[in-house]
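Hi V.,

You were right to ask for the full record rather than a summary. Here it is.
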Amino acid sequence: MAAITETVEIARRPEDVFAYIDDLERHGEWQEEIVSAHVEGEGPTKVGTRAIEKRRMGRREQEVTYEITEHDPPRTFAFRGTGGPIRPIGKGTVEPLDGGERSRVTIDFDFEAHGIAGKILKPMALMQARKSIPKGQQRLKERLESGAA
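Predicted structure:
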């Protein structure tokens, strides 16, 4: 079971919502902790695609590399961090509502702790994620419903 599960309903079609989430370099538009994001390689997002994000973590900036582990547009995606003492792991679903005119986005999120440092840092990272993920979901909704995305 995921440590964090957040859901938001968005007045946009699942295909539109998924396409925006699938553009990994645009995640900073709705996740305020992201300073920059870069996708390794070329082509559309797929299983095996790797992205490097520079994130604000407290007063510091840190690079986080993750890999797409599941990709089934426009319904599901999953990712896993590839290094460091605490590695993000998550899964998202985009469900159609109202005959496909609206969407429900659910994110299940946790961290895997590696080594002593990971065990020490994980509770703090989860506390920060419990604050930031709902804000990010709300910003995702606002951007998609305003037409900015």
